[in-house]
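User: Please fill in residues for this 206-position structure.
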């Protein structure tokens, strides 16, 4: 049963990307990037450990980079999990440090409503940061049936500077819709790696 709803979360995340870019991304993978030097030749950079997917939309001339899905909370052996998807977009194939970073939170729980309101905050190394309000994607509907289960999706285009603070923190708690989630050391490192990728201004990334 739990495996079934993990697949559901992944499917919904793919639909979010598809609704924006018209195509589903390939399965997540650890990737090399190709870097063009001043002479126009390319070379391979060191293989990245953080899993990302890069998808180019020729019609819109945009590339979207999607980070591997991060599980913020789950209950082993029972129905219930909260996940986070992070992505950013740049024109053509060369990275442009984004002005905003997309953060999408998905909750599927059996007994309680996980996201009780639309507030979004973070506590980063002991300092509270107000990240504004989350929104529900227009393609999704909140499902709250008497007695459960409960399904919800919230998203936010977070300013780059705020995402950089989150990704650089040594202790990070995200408070999503009133529910707190502490990021593990591995999750913080994954976000830090993703931030580093965003900062590779002008690098060709395929």
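Assistant: Residues filled in for all 206 positions:
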């Amino acid at each position: 049963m739990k495996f079934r709803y993990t697949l559901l979360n992944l499917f919904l995340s793919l639909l979010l990307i598809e609704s924006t870019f018209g195509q589903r991304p390939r399965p997540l993978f650890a990737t090399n990037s190709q870097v063009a030097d001043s002479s126009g030749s390319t070379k391979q950079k060191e293989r990245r450990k953080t899993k990302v997917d890069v998808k180019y939309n020729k019609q819109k001339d945009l590339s979207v980079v999607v980070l591997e899905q991060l599980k913020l909370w789950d209950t082993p052996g029972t129905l219930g999990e909260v996940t986070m998807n992070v992505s950013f977009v740049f024109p053509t194939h060369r990275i442009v440090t984004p002005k905003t970073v997309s953060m999408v939170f998905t909750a599927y729980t059996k007994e309680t409503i996980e996201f009780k309101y639309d507030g979004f905050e973070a506590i980063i190394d002991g300092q509270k940061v107000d990240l504004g309000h989350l929104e529900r994607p227009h393609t999704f509907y909140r499902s709250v049936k008497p007695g459960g289960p409960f399904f919800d999706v919230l998203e936010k285009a977070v300013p780059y500077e705020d995402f950089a603070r989150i990704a650089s923190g040594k202790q990070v708690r995200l408070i999503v819709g009133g529910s707190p989630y502490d990021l593990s050391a591995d999750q913080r490192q994954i976000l830090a790696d993703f931030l580093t990728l965003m900062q590779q201004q002008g690098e060709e990334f395929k």
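For context: DSSP finds three helices and 14 strands in the chain.
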